[in-house]
Design goal:
single chain, 344 residues, 6-stranded mixed sheet, 2 domains
Length: 344
């Protein structure tokens, strides 16, 4: 009798790919969180981008024969006369490249493109989340990263605009579509709003300081520009945050250990604005039990609580933008490229 046991073929590829994806995703999260924490303490950080994963697969076989000698009563039923096996061994190699190009820093500091904002908004049922996260100004409505003392609270008109955007979008009367003209990022189109949503649309346009059409059956087309509102403006002027702005907001959301705050060893920030509302990175001496993500630094654990959906959503959005810039900026020609074989 010959018996063999192996995990090969499509199932092994599936398990291997899932494991690599999980490991890479986890370490990228930890790298981003550590970068945020280090920068809060005014320290530099370095980045490595995964540029390749190669898995070398090796198979070997073995066979054995067990033979009994003497009286058959001594071995019958206790020995397997023949045995065989197949050994499957996978040796992955992970390749990293340092992210240190000027292109990366330019991309981090460049305002997020309105094309990207359009994709985010169209991909969600609650566009107000991305408006408050990514947009700093819409016409005369201001949404600062941090609240100056004179302001004290986020602009209620910006909040109202964002909430109305979601209401009208969910009602199916507001859509954001790409405009073929080169100077216009996209159009906001409001249609079939009468009679039920006339008051909301009028309020929406008032917030933007735009006139309401006398013909309520007419579609309202609002061109959106990456610009600052000027005199006699007839569209929507938007300004957006950069990825670095989001990075700084999350950095400011760290609740510092009391001893570090007293010692003055970390950067101090004013209260965060609407984009950072409810966002918290917590600290603990002991390793947290219910952390979505955690990293240890200066004797403390810095972590995102698994129940804080607001922070997890903020971190996920930042990572999406951050990772895209890392991957596009990683230069495999820059020495040294670090290649690490994994396994024994």
């Amino acid at each position: 009798m010959l018996a063999g046991c192996a995990v090969v073929g499509p199932s092994s590829i599936s398990m291997g790919r899932a494991s690599y994806n999980e490991a890479i995703n986890k370490t990228e999260d930890e790298q981003l969180l550590m970068s945020i924490v280090r920068s809060r303490y005014g320290e530099l950080y370095s980045l490595l981008a995964v540029t390749g994963v190669a898995a070398n697969v090796r198979f070997s076989s073995s066979a054995g024969v067990n033979v009994g000698f003497g009286d058959s009563d001594d071995y019958v039923g206790n020995l397997v006369p023949f045995s065989g096996g197949v050994i499957y061994e996978e040796n992955p190699t992970i390749t990293y490249a340092p992210v240190q190009s000027e292109q990366f820093f330019r991309q981090m500091l460049t305002p997020i493109e309105l094309d990207s904002l359009l994709l985010f908004v169209r991909a969600t049922a609650e566009p107000d989340k991305f408006l408050t996260l990514l947009v700093t100004r819409i016409n005369d409505l201001f949404n600062p990263d941090f609240l100056p003392p004179a302001l004290g609270e986020p602009d209620p008109k910006f909040i109202q605009f964002a909430e109305l955007t979601t209401e009208l979008r969910q009602a199916g009367i507001l859509d954001w579509v790409k405009d073929p003209r080169q100077d216009i990022a996209f159009d906001m189109i409001i249609r079939r709003y009468a009679p039920r949503y006339v008051s909301q649309v009028r309020e929406y346009l008032n917030l933007l300081d735009l006139p309401m059409s006398a013909d309520l059956s007419e579609d309202i087309i609002l061109p959106v520009y990456f610009a600052v509102k000027g005199a006699d403006w007839r569209g929507i002027a938007m300004s957006t945050r950069s990825t670095e702005d989001l990075f700084e907001i999350l950095r400011a959301s760290i609740e510092l250990p009391e001893e570090h705050a007293r010692a003055g060893i970390a950067i101090d920030y004013p209260p965060v604005g609407l984009a950072g509302k409810g966002v918290r990175i917590l600290t603990s001496k002991e390793k947290p039990e219910k952390a979505a993500l955690a990293t240890k630094y200066r004797g403390y654990w810095f972590y995102i609580d698994d129940s804080n959906l607001r922070t997890k959503e903020f971190f996920s959005s930042l990572k999406t933008l951050w990772s895209a810039k890392i991957r596009s900026s990683a230069d495999e020609k820059v020495a040294p490229v670090l290649t690490i074989p994994v396994g024994g």
